[in-house]
């Protein structure tokens, strides 16, 4: 039984990729979601068993994650998967009325691609696309860049749909 540690909360592209990796490699296992990949790596350092870490190649600090953990983690696999549809979502307002947008650091450039978006808006960064949707639903920001899955779970209105993005994911195993 393998445990795949990756970025949460539920609805992240990393969660989707973790389930796909298990299926495509014929493994039975579970997916454990963490607030950050750094938290996942730290957790894995303190566990025994067949644990792996799944990261996204556009994760802002993936290079630090690799080099700071060379003593106990090694890169063993990479694959490409289409993400969930990446969306710009809010609570029904028009893009020009939005003043604050939440996003994970990686897809934040999508904000400027939204037709009619206010160029003077403030961007607030969160640990994941799913967290950006949760914070939007909690009124911490007016809108967010997230996945369609997370936007729908949070009751948000999709204002722009960028579609799926072919994305790379890395698999890191514990060094025996």
What can you tell me about this protein's structure?
With 176 residues, the chain is of the alpha/beta class. The strands form 2 sheets. A 5-stranded mixed beta sheet has the order 2-1-3-10-4, with helices on both faces. A 5-stranded mixed beta sheet has the order 7-6-8-5-9. The chain has 2 domains: 90 residues, Periplasmic binding protein-like II (D-Maltodextrin-Binding Protein, domain 2); 81 residues, Periplasmic binding protein-like II (D-Maltodextrin-Binding Protein, domain 2), CATH 3.40.190.10. Helix 1 links the parallel strand 1 and strand 2. It starts with a strand and ends with a strand. The model has no long low-confidence stretch (mean pLDDT 95).
